[in-house]
């Protein structure tokens, strides 16, 4: 399961507010006709030329939402997974507020939090504090497509769904850097970054493809990464035979099925935290003894995996290639003690 830092405050008495926000947003950003500018990998956003202007279009469910850019845009993030986009564009000063600031590894954003030019959107009990939207207003409030749009926002703010995790692969997700490039008036820089990183895209083949089981573990259950996940797809691109499910989400692997899969695989890759690794040591030692598997980890907190892997899928791909060749690993993947 990927870590997504977003929050939802929904109650029936606020549905009329949601309706007003959506109506206002549609009035400000109606569906428009014009020349469509398709992306190279991404399918869930595109640009459109309308007369002398260019607008951003995001596909959200059955709807296509249209957004105009502002000269000096400011953002609120309801997920920490998007900070990397601003980092590579040297646009972190546009971030006015975010959730879970204590997890941020970006030196720029850490400095902004210290200097109080970027603020936490959370209250003391780690829930979203909607008042922060009004105390530190931003042009765009970025939220996950898995949740409803935030309920109470300032009149001049626009809620914008960031659908990168719904894209078909890691390279399409990477291309969402262009969304933030467009909104921050850094579109040429975003295109240049995307083109540079995508040069690392490759398909590697082993004579005898090694098998790998990828997932996470919370101490009780093993969660099997779906075949549609970016990590599974990059492992496949690196030449692995990836064991996975056919559904789009992550699934709990029952103990009996886990036993079957451990008998079939050579490698196990766990996406876990440092504390989870310590708690799982005895279990992993038993797997090695019983099944002869090689166990590796991506320590998602130590590597800032969810923030960095989005903007550097070529690093994760190279890790998988090196793993298959039994070379030294250098980015996200490491052998579990």
Structure, explained:
The strands form three sheets. Strands 10, 11, 12, 13, 14, 15 and 16 form a seven-stranded mixed β-sheet that branches. A five-stranded parallel β-sheet has the order 7-6-5-8-9, with helices on one face. Helices cover 33% and strands 21% of the residues. The protein has helices spanning 15-28, 83-88, 107-114, 131-135, 170-174, 177-183, 187-198, 230-237, 255-264, 274-291, 305-311, 313-324, and strands spanning 35-37, 45-50, 53-60, 63-67, 75-77, 95-98, 119-120, 140-143, 158-161, 211-217, 222-224, 241-243, 251-253, 267-272, 294-299, 333-335. A hairpin with a 2-residue loop joins β3 (53-60) and β4. It starts with 14 loop residues before the first helix and ends with a strand. It is of the alpha/beta class. It is globular and about 60 Å long.
State the order of secondary-structure elements, H for helix, E for strand: HEEEEEHEHEHEEHHHEEHEEHEHEHHE
Beta-strand content bin: 15-25%
Profile the largest sheet. Answer: 7 strands, mixed
Q: What is the average per-residue confidence, as pLDDT, rounded to a whole number?
A: 88
Looking at the structure, what is the overall shape?
Answer: globular
- State the distance separating the first and last CA atoms: 23 Å
Q: Could you estimate the helical fraction of the residues in percent?
A: 25-40%
Sequence stretches where pLDDT stays below 50 over 5 or more residues = 1-30
Short description:
The protein is 33% helix and 21% strand.
């Amino acid at each position: 399961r990927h870590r997504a830092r977003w929050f939802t405050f929904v109650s029936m008495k606020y549905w009329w507010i949601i309706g007003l926000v959506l109506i206002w947003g549609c009035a400000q950003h109606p569906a428009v006709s014009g020349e469509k500018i398709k992306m190279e990998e991404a399918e869930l956003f595109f640009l459109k030329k309308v007369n002398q202007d260019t607008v951003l279009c995001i596909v959200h469910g059955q709807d296509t939402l249209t957004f105009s850019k502002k000269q000096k845009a400011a953002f609120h993030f309801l997920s920490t997974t998007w900070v990397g986009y601003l980092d590579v564009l040297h646009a972190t000063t546009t971030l006015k507020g975010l959730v879970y600031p204590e997890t941020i590894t970006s030196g720029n954003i850490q400095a902004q939090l210290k200097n109080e030019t970027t603020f936490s959107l959370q209250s003391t009990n780690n829930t979203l504090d909607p008042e922060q939207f009004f105390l530190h207003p931003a042009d765009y409030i970025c939220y996950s497509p898995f949740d409803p749009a935030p309920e109470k926002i300032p009149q001049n703010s626009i809620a914008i769904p960031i659908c990168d995790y719904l894209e078909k692969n890691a390279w399409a997700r990477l291309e969402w850097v262009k969304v933030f490039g467009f909104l921050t008036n850094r579109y040429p820089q975003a295109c240049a970054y995307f083109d540079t990183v995508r040069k690392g895209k490759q398909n590697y083949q082993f004579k005898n493809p090694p098998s790998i089981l990828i997932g996470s573990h919370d101490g009780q259950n093993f969660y099997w990464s779906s075949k549609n996940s970016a990590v599974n797809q990059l492992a496949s691109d690196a030449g692995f035979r990836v064991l996975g499910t056919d559904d789009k989400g992550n699934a709990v692997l029952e103990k009996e099925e886990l036993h079957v899969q451990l008998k079939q695989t050579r490698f196990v890759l766990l996406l876990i935290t440092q504390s989870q690794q310590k708690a799982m040591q005895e279990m992993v030692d038993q797997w090695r003894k019983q099944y002869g598997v090689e166990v590796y980890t991506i320590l998602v907190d130590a590597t800032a995996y969810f923030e960095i892997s989005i903007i550097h899928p070529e690093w994760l791909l190279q890790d998988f290639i090196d793993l298959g060749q039994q070379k030294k690993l250098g980015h996200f993947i490491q052998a579990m003690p």
